[in-house]
Amino acid sequence: MKNSHLLLCTSLVWILQSSIADAIDLQPNDARPPPPGINSVQVSYQYSERGDFYAHGDKTITNLEISSDLYLWRVGHSFEIAEHPAYFYAQVPTGAVHPQKSLAVAGGDSGVGDTTLLLAFWPYANRETQTYFALGAYLTLPTGSYDKNRYFNLGENVYRTALQAAYQTSLSDKMNFMAAFDAVWTGDNSEYRLPQSVAIGKLEQGVQYNAQAVLSYAISPVYELSAAYYYTLGAEATINGLNQDNQKDVHRYQVFVSAKYPIGKFTVQYGSDLKTENGYFEDQRLTLRYMKAF
User: Fold this and answer.
1) What are phi and psi of 106, to 5 degrees?
2) Using CA atoms, how far apart are residues 285 and 238, in angstroms rounded to an integer?
3) What are the pLDDT digits (tens) for 72-101?
């Protein structure tokens, strides 16, 4: 049986995967392409709290708390590839992570996170029936703050790639359904601090799979309500060739309220984990978002 402290420290590499996670967690109606030639800017604030630590579905360590404040800065542009819709964006997070309670001695981090790039392409887009099928390719670059002597970092010191497929259709005049599936590949971190040691080792992670489903209801031309379910599986860690038996198995939800005004679109988003097999349980996540297209 693995040492519980080893599992605890190994899981620290998971908590700040915000850059790629936010990229893959689609917002309602993201599978609908914007018209070509549109530029967009988006600014988001995200607050998250994580607490109890779980191993194989059992709560093993309490009196833990990790909070983070992140600002996500995104610019994008829509265009066409062979007369099909396409979209590109670049996103950079900034912010801080705050380990608290029994984790306070570990110290936090603040600064810039890892940069994420997306290229999306729609092989099928029927605006009359409001039915769309999109493909997306993500690349996350290790541009963020990282120190091998810290357990908590805004950056992850790895390259990450992901492929995603998304589908959206209209169920009625006011209701839309969207579903997406993606796979994430993570490079090796050869500067990972070994648990309970000053030595540096090699951290490897398996493929991570994510699925999501979103239902949206337009209250009016201005206001919309949405609810989303997310499932994550995989990303089992290996340290110096030793399997940690800690793959992710996470169920979570998010609810959205959005409003479209001439000055831009505002969204309030809230949710938490429903079940976490291995790692920290996310007690709450609040996101405030502003997007402007021009």
Assistant:
1) -75, -25
2) 28
3) 999 999 999 999 999 999 999 999 999 999
Could you tell me which residues are beta bridge partners of residue 162?
138, 184
Q: How far apart are CA 89 and CA 74, in angstroms?
A: 7
Q: For residues 23-43, b (16+ Cβ closer than 10 Å) or e, as one string?
A: bbbbbbbbbbbeeeeeebebe
Residue type, 207: V
Alpha-carbon distance 217 to 212, whole Å? 17
Residue written as token pair 């091998």 = 148
SS3 labels along 218-271: ECCCCEEEEEEEEEEEECCEEECCEECCCCEEEEEEEEEEEEEECCEEEEEEEE
202, two tokens: 């090699």
d(CA 142, CA 231): 25
Q: What CATH number did the domain enclosing 184 receive?
A: 2.40.128.130
The total of structural domains in the chain comes to: 1
The Cα–Cα gap between 159 and 115 comes to 10
Host domain of residue 42: 4-293
For the chain, which residues score pLDDT lower than 50?
1-22
